[in-house]
């Protein structure tokens, strides 16, 4: 029964690798040789549209962000997922399974972002398949981890105080980073400042609606010494680590596209997340080193 479950997870992971390779490679390399054009959105604002490639109908501001994400997925996330899959196949241990689960969580976040955030294009069915594979793969992976065994095999050198601080800051900072934009739009009785051609900001939904609450739930579960807390922790740390790599790459793609970014926005958003990512990497290394069980 366990072997069948493992085989199912490995097949789903392979599917995630294939689908994400398609979405990211096409997003990064495909071109229609189109040109930038202007468009009046549903709120009467003039929006510059990218006009080329997979993101031809996305805004000129967001398309480079999507392409920066594609670059990160190809050169960072997919290689890590491949390595995690190979390790889990070769040695079915608790540490390798947690690593694989953590990396799958990155693809769940990524696939949700593109499935709900990118303007409809030729890869829409691939987006749906990737989101479905990542979402259910994450559920299967989490369910395959013995929470009691994990709790028993966490070493006593885990920097819990640092982890508590990190989770608290993460949960609060994600809300603080995005909530003012929403409050401002409500006070001014208009749409979000960078809503452009979109109906919502999927990043706000994922960060404030899922990631921030998960960080706080993880915090409370760890303080109660519940096994699920030790499962959620590496998922959050791995996701924050990859996002910390992704943000500067996205910024480079935007600057390369000639987009002027306010220094204030870069400091309050990008730099904050990069600093959190550095702490996440440190804590993640500490976490995996403190897992005593290898079988």
From TrEMBL:
Q: What name has this protein been given in UniProt? A: Uncharacterized protein
Record bears the keyword Iron? no
Q: Which UniProt keywords are present, listed alphabetically? A: Membrane, Transmembrane, Transmembrane helix
Superkingdom in the source lineage: Bacteria
Q: Establish whether keyword Methyltransferase is in the entry.
A: no
Instruction: From the UniProt record, list the coiled-coil ranges.
Output: none
Provenance organism: Clostridium oceanicum
**Transmembrane portions of the chain:** 12-30, 65-86, 98-116, 122-142, 163-182, 202-220, 227-249, 261-285
């Amino acid at each position: 029964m366990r072997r069948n479950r493992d085989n199912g997870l490995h097949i789903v992971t392979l599917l995630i690798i294939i689908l994400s390779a398609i979405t990211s490679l096409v997003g990064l390399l495909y071109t229609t040789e189109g040109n930038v054009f202007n468009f009046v959105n549903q709120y009467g604002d003039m929006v510059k549209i990218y006009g080329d490639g997979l993101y031809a109908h996305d805004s000129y501001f967001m398309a480079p962000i999507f392409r920066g994400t594609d670059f990160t997925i190809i050169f960072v996330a997919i290689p890590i997922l491949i390595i995690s899959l190979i390790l889990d196949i070769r040695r079915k241990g608790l540490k390798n399974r947690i690593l694989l689960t953590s990396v799958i969580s990155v693809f769940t976040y990524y696939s949700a972002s593109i499935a709900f955030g990118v303007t409809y294009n030729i890869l829409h069915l691939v987006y749906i398949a990737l989101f479905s594979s990542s979402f259910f793969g994450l559920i299967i992976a989490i369910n395959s981890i013995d929470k009691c065994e994990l709790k028993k095999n966490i070493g006593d050198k885990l920097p819990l105080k640092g982890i508590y601080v990190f989770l608290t800051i993460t949960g609060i900072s994600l809300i603080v980073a995005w909530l003012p934009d929403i409050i401002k739009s409500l006070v001014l009785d208009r749409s979000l400042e960078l809503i452009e051609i979109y109906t919502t900001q999927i990043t706000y939904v994922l960060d404030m609606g899922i990631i921030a609450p998960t960080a706080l739930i993880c915090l409370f579960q760890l303080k109660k010494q519940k096994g699920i807390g030790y499962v959620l922790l590496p998922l959050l740390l791995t996701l924050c680590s990859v996002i910390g790599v992704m943000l500067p790459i996205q910024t480079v793609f935007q600057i390369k596209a000639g987009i002027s970014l306010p220094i204030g926005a870069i400091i309050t958003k990008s730099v904050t997340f990069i600093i959190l990512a550095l702490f996440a990497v440190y804590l993640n290394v500490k976490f995996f080193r403190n897992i005593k069980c290898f079988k």
